[in-house]
Amino acid sequence: MSRPLTPSIADCLEHQRLRPVFQPIGSLATGEVMGYEALIRGPAGTPLESPIALFAEAARAGCLVRLERLASRIAIAAFMRARLPGKLFLNYSADSIREIDGSREEVRAFLQSQGLTTDRIVIELTEQAPLGSLETLAQAVAAIRGRGAQFALDDYGTGHANLGQWIALKPDYVKIARVVVDGVVSSPFQLEALRAMCQLAKIGNTALVAEGIEQEADLLICRDLGIHYAQGYLLARPTAEPPLTLSEASLRALRSGPIEVLPGGAVEAPCGGSPARRLRSGE
Asked: Which of 176, 187, 225, 240 is 20 to 30 A (C-alpha) from 2?
């Protein structure tokens, strides 16, 4: 069997060979969907279908900003066609965020043409490329927020996403990296890290989003710590036609009572109820 030919980035841009998928972000307090993160895929069945390969190739070719601009427009148009509710989280590198601020009138006209108001947009800073000057990035973020959009710091706890960024950029949302959240039920260190983030978020008036949730126990720990939102395969997978509600498994877990973390990482309901035994046994 012959291997699929890899399209060029120029071809992807010229012919708009990009497709968006959306992953719901759920409220841990209510179980409702508060918004969706837009994720971009390249041409199906090719090596550039992977977003990692797609954006890495764009960075190598020097057209990352152009790719992100096109990807966001395609995602916005699809989001509005699908009449999805809530917020729309859009991923941008630092240079793309600066570019948004520099082309504000063009951006405003496009949003008006799609019928999307800025108060439904959350600009999410990714690590596709180096940040550059934190001062100029903070100025661009402040200007964008001044026009009604919100700002999120992605993958907190890995790479460039650090406390210095949190202080300088004053995000509305901090998305906690999966490496911090996954397995927290059995890691006292991760648990204390999450508790510390919750305290910082409370002081800074920041909403937290736990990423990469796949286990019910981790979901419940995040809920009981007071983390506001969650995202991950347990709640819903990214799809072109995303659900309007979270998965039954996640909703069932969120409706259960609080759990207690015991020494060694086991979890138990206040009176030793069956939900805790199921979580402890991994069922």
From this structure: 240
Q: Which stretches in the chain have pLDDT values below 50? A: 1-3, 269-283
pLDDT of residue 157: 81
Terminal Cα distance for the chain, rounded: 40
Amino acid in position 213: I
CA angle centred on 149, ends 143 and 133, rounded to 5°: 40
Q: Is the CB of residue 13 less than 8 Å from the CB of residue 63?
A: yes
The residues, any chain, with a CB within 8 Å of residue 147's CB and separated by 6 or more, are 104, 108, 118
The model's pTM is: 0.89
What residue spans define the domains of the chain? 9-246
Q: Which CATH architecture has domain 9-246?
A: Alpha-Beta Barrel (3.20)
Tell me the sheet residues that pair with 173. 152, 207
Task: Dig out the tokens for 193 from the structure.
Answer: 């890290």
Closest by CA position to 124, among listed 104, 97, 148: 97
180: tokens are: 């911090």
Q: In sequence order, what are the beta bridge partners of 90?
A: 123
Neighbour tally for 273: CB within 10 Å: 13
Measured CA to CA, the distance from residue 177 to residue 185 in angstroms comes to: 15
Rounded to an integer, what distance in angstroms lies between the CA atom of residue 141 and that of residue 37? 19
Q: Is 58 left (phi over 0), alpha (psi -120 to 50) or beta?
A: alpha
